[in-house]
Amino acid sequence: MRIAISTGGGDAPGLNAVIRAVVLSAHYRGWKSYGIQRGYEGLLSFNGVVPLGPAEVRGITHLGGTILGTTNRGNPFRYVMRDGEGNESEVDRSGDLVAAFQASGFDALVSIGGDGSLLISHQLWCKGLPVVCVPKTIDNDVSGTQRTFGFDSAVSTATEALDKVHSTAESHDRVMVVELMGRYAGWIALYSGLSGSADVILLPEIPFDIEKVCDKIRAREAAGRRFSVVVVAEGARPSDGAIELVERRGVGTVDRLGGIASKVARAIELGTGKETRTLVLGHLQRGGSPTTYDRLLALRFGGAAVRAIADGAFGVMVGLNGPDITRVPLADVVGRAKNVPLGGDIIATARELGISLGD
């Protein structure tokens, strides 16, 4: 058995732990593992297939990033090509990818990625490629699993930053607006904002009224609390119908959210007269070593992926459901984002603690 491993999309703490688990689980079955470098580019644009054995994955569980590299531009169904004049266009190279996969003698693919990678994997599965997926995203927005690895690490990084923001905000009697990742799901903002004692948390799931946000800050001021910490998810949007801030990035790329913190900060300063500063954590949330929780989850996911291959169970994603790792058909996962449930106990806890959610 020859297993190929691919890491696609944005990086997340724990990727290397998955790779190590897959390689070692395969090795002790007498199978061989190979890594495809930079997503699918290692099969489509250069000779980027490398053998992976126990020696190659020794000591990588605690390392952030991915030893295979990754890219957001590697969709084989919408592959970006440039002509002689530098103009870009999209072409379908999925057939080339399947042919290269078969020519390499691979028997199975372990695809590690988020919702975009899962969609690509499902399309490849429909074209006959034997694939098992591992859910990866710091955003925790993949359905079919209670947790994705990388999320706990991102929340820990964000919470630590909020702890530090508190002291400087209080020292200067300022409002600090901290923008966190998460795209259209507010998991990181909610978990870290609650854990980091934020005064306001703005989520994509709850359109906010900036006047309600200002009311909260004014109420704190009246109570002698002359500073406030506002956490805003990058996909948060105002209730007046304005579209979230998106940067259009051209052919073959993913549109990038960003800039909501500046918009909120300006509105707060105008509405309250308080000096307001912004902090965008950005890719700090993706970097660094995975937490213990993410290391263990990633290792469990990697082992479960190899067990699925051994059972001939392809076209599935492994996921955490209850205490166990289960298999979920890719058809039940793709196109179904997992958002923060508004009736959940964590939202209720935030409200009961007096945190404003902007509504």
Describe the structure.
With 359 residues, this protein is an alpha/beta fold. The protein has two domains: 2-149 and 290-332, Rossmann fold; 154-287, Phosphofructokinase domain (Rossmann fold, 3-Layer(aba) Sandwich). The chain is 34% helix and 19% strand. The protein has ten helices and 15 strands. The strands form four sheets. A seven-stranded mixed beta sheet has the order 3-2-1-6-7-14-15, with helices on both faces. A four-stranded parallel beta sheet has the order 9-10-8-13, sandwiched between helices. Helix 1 links the parallel strand 1 (2-7) and strand 2 (32-36). Helix 1 (15-27) runs parallel beside helix 9, helix 5 (151-172) crosses helix 6 (187-195) and helix 7 (210-222) crosses helix 8 (260-272). The radius of gyration is 22 Å and the shape is elongated. It starts with a strand and ends in a 7-residue tail after the last helix.
Compile the SSE list and pairings.
Layout: E1 2-7, H1 15-27, E2 32-36, H2 41-44, E3 49-52, E4 79-82, E5 88-91, H3 94-103, E6 108-113, H4 115-126, E7 131-135, H5 151-172, E8 175-180, H6 187-195, E9 200-202, H7 210-222, E10 228-233, E11 246-247, E12 256-257, H8 260-272, E13 276-280, H9 292-310, E14 316-321, E15 324-329, H10 345-352
Parallel strand pairs: 1-2, 1-6, 6-7, 7-14, 8-10, 8-13, 9-10
Antiparallel strand pairs: 2-3, 4-5, 11-12, 14-15
Overall geometry comes to: elongated
Q: Measured on Cα atoms, how large is the radius of gyration?
A: 22 Å
Query: What is the share of helical residues?
Result: 25-40%
Question: Under the CATH scheme, which class of the largest domain?
Answer: Alpha Beta
Class per helix and strand makeup? alpha/beta
Give the integer mean of the pLDDT values: 93
The low-pLDDT segments are 248-253
List the domain count as a whole number.
2
The number of E-state strands comes to: 15
Architecture per CATH nomenclature, i.e. the level-2 architecture of the largest domain? 3-Layer(aba) Sandwich
CATH topology of the largest domain: Rossmann fold
* Individual helix count: 10
Strand content: 15-25%
How far apart lie the N and C ends?
A: 55 Å
Order of helices and strands: EHEHEEEHEHEHEHEHEEEHEHEEH
